[in-house]
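Interim report, section 4.2 (structural modelling).
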Amino acid sequence: MTQGRSWFRLSALVIGFAFLYIPIMSLVVYSFNESKLVTVWAGFSTKWYGELLHNQQILGAAWLSLKIAAVSATIAVVLGTLAGLVLARFGPFRGRTLLSGLTTAPLVMPEVITGLSMLLLFVTMEQLIGWPAGRGMTTIVIAHVTFTMAYVTVVVQSRLSQMDDSLEEAAMDLGARPSRVFFLITLPIITPALLSGWLLAFTLSVDDLVTTSFVAGPGSSTLPMVIFSKVRLGVSPDINALATIVVAIVAVGVVIAGVMMSRQQKARDRDAQMALAANQQMIESLKKG
Amino acid sequence: MNRVLKRLGLTGQGLVTSVPYLWLVLFFLVPFVIVLKISFSTAAIAMPPYAPLLHWVSEKVVQVQLDFSNFMFLVEDNLYWKAYLNSIMVAAISTILCLLIGYPIAYSIARSPPSSRNILMLMIVLPFWTSFLLRVYAWIGILKQNGLLNNTLMWLGVIHEPLQIMQTYTAVYIGIVYSYLPFMILPLYANLEKMDLTLLEAASDLGCKPWQAFYKITLPLSQPGIVAGCLLVFIPAVGEFVIPSLLGSPGMLMIGKVLWTEFFNNRDWPVASAVAIALLMFLVIPIMYYQRAQDAEAGGGLHR
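Predicted structure of the assembly:
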């Protein structure tokens, strides 16, 4: 009986992961295909990578996307951390439900709605106060911050609610001001959550097509916008090359993150052991004394 | 100094709260009010392409001109009804498919040895970190006439004529299920992993067969996970634009595509706004339901 169930589990996992990874692997394999037809194999070639590196439009768009993502992820982490802190630590207050609604709604809101409403806001603001003048990087950053900070808030809020708040309380009891407690105690503990929140926001920003298309002006085409206009016309081998580069970057990032996490775990285990040993020594010396 | 600030109502907590609050109100809530306003205005050839709602008739009288014609247009034109119903149907079927595929995977991971659970979950989330657009693009190469799937099936001798999958609903379902599967698996796994396994042991001791125990214990207990996963897939899938426009046929009516076309191709901002408001009215109930479920979950975390 147990055997039957483990067979079921194994096949569910194998089929599931095949479904998730075969498309990505096919992108990588066909990026080395000589033929322009992408899926008809005509021999190994790296020429599409060369073509990609000479495509000024794609390179320019990629650079713009990276700049936008770095700026908006940083702002999103600051705002998302504040929102997560408020929701996890400040207890009930007037308007908490609204804040919590405003932070979860962007997670599920269809992007065509978010994009349209943001654009109409920018147009109205320009009419009323003259800012933001035209649309471009600034408007894209504001839009990206708004929907990515929701993800940061969720990450930070869940980390804070799992975290033991006795350390914070102890610091308060010893007379530390709330801001000092935050910077000395809370912030170092939630730093890994902030890091993953930043990476998540960065990825979502680099990847976003729909919201960006609404709020981007002429001459501020991001990478997904360029890819979309190319892909609409059919498959194109240099996009496969681009996808392979993205996959490679993510894979390297995952390996680095994995190594760092296991190192941290080891350091934590070592610290715990040392603390335990010190504790025992103290107890023994107390017994002797 | 502090006392002065406090008297003004400017406490540290208030300041910390107000920064993200103001941002979200200004850039997320206010825009919806503007969309609502523009959905009642008349299209005009101008920049921006709509007529203002408020007219100064004389010095002191403001005339508000509400134009319901955009909504009447939505109701009268069959195209919009079809697009709404179609989007809801496509989203619903994709959600069910996601659940049917995602549940066994989440269940299998949750019942794996604890040491391998994290790495398996990492592998589920990993594709999410690569580009969504490129992952949808990958399916064009697989599903098209002389794509990977057709070539493989013909090589195996299963079929002799290539199947037409691209530009059909099947392709759209595959695309949505593929892109949103992690969103289904994450809440399901979080729920199934917490489950008290002694309940299943008790059931088995009392003579329950494994499938009975699953049906009577595991399934009902995982209901919050199922609800969260389904909402996370269904709500964004209703407004999906990228997948139907890349994998579906050009004539396929989906509301996200209709809104996009009204806005970018027809430049009819008031009708696009009316489409958005109508879509939002439909989605507001599931969104609030999701938000409440999330909040209950987070609240439970606080009391633990």
